[in-house]
């Protein structure tokens, strides 16, 4: 389980929203869907490029890459928001770019949570400048109620209401990323 400090509640007291089995089943279903969608496109030997958004998407990407049955490779980007004012300012900054060119490649942006949409709409715009052959979005979780900009994912693990969750790569203050399932973070613990 996660390494916790006294100020952070143990994951064992948190409600499990999605079990490891439920997550694995959805990742397999998305992998199968991507396999079917891209089977014809990758016949020329060009692997799909999965681009994960650090750090939250790392675990979802690791599982997804292995559930896709056509050649795929991966890269990572990292973004930072300008503090907690992000939601009002909408400002997102790239702090780590892709390592390899994606021009002419079939690209899937892989994110942990599609929330306000600010991060993914910024990254989509940035990636499109590289002229990929195609660009799609896969997200483990989607919180449609929270959207501030119009953007939808092509592949979605689960839709959830406006609740804060941790585990399976997702953190609260960098804690809980290693929790293997997805749990509800208690409202009363927010703000520590
Ligand atoms: P947005 O779509 O630009 O608002 O950003 C989504 C990002 O916010 C995700 O990649 C997560 O890093 C973070 N985030 C949003 N909701 C949650 C949550 O419930 N738990 C953990 N991180 C979250
Ligand atoms: Mg994130």
Q: Which fold name is given in CATH as the topology of the domain at 22-37 and 45-162?
A: Rossmann fold
CATH architecture descriptor name of the domain at 22-37 and 45-162: 3-Layer(aba) Sandwich
The rounded Rg comes to 17 Å
CATH class of the domain at 22-37 and 45-162: Alpha Beta
Strands of the widest sheet, in order across it, are 4-3-2-5-6-7
Shape: globular
Largest beta-sheet characterization: 6 strands, mixed
- The helix/strand series, from N terminus to C terminus, equals EHEHEHEEHEEEE
Write structural notes for this entry.
The chain is of the alpha/beta class and about 190 residues long. The chain has a domain at about 20-35 and about 45-160: Rossmann fold, CATH 3.40.50.2020. About 25% of the residues lie in helices and about 30% in strands. The chain has four helices and nine strands. The strands form two sheets. Strands 4-3-2-5-6-7 form a six-stranded mixed sheet, with helices on both faces. It has a three-stranded antiparallel sheet with strand order 1-9-8. Strand 2 (about 50-55), helix 2 (about 60-65) and strand 3 (about 70-80) form a beta-alpha-beta unit. Helix 1 packs across helix 2 (about 60-65). It is globular, with a radius of gyration of 17 Å. The protein starts with 15 loop residues before the first strand and ends in an 8-residue tail after the last strand. Bound molecules: inosinic acid and magnesium ion. Magnesium ion (MG) binds near residues 53, 56 and 112. The site of magnesium ion (MG) has 3 residues, from loops.
């Amino acid at each position: 389980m996660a390494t916790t400090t006294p100020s952070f509640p143990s994951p064992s007291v948190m409600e499990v929203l999605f079990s490891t089995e439920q997550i694995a089943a959805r990742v397999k279903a998305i992998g199968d869907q991507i396999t079917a969608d891209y089977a014809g496109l990758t016949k020329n030997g060009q692997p799909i490029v999965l681009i994960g958004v650090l750090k939250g998407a790392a675990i979802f990407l690791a599982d997804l890459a292995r559930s896709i049955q056509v050649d795929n490779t991966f890269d990572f980007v990292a973004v930072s928001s300008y503090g907690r004012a992000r939601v009002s300012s909408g400002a997102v900054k790239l702090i780590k770019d892709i390592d390899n060119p994606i021009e002419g490649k079939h690209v899937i942006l892989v994110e942990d949570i599609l929330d306000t949409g600010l991060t993914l709409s910024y990254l989509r715009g940035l990636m499109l400048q590289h002229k990929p052959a195609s660009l799609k979005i896969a997200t483990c979780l989607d919180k449609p109620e929270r959207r501030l900009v119009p953007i939808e994912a092509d592949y979605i693990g689960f839709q959830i209401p406006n609740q804060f969750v941790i585990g399976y790569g997702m953190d609260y203050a960098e804690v809980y990323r290693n929790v293997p399932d997805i749990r509800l973070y208690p409202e009363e613990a927010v703000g520590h």
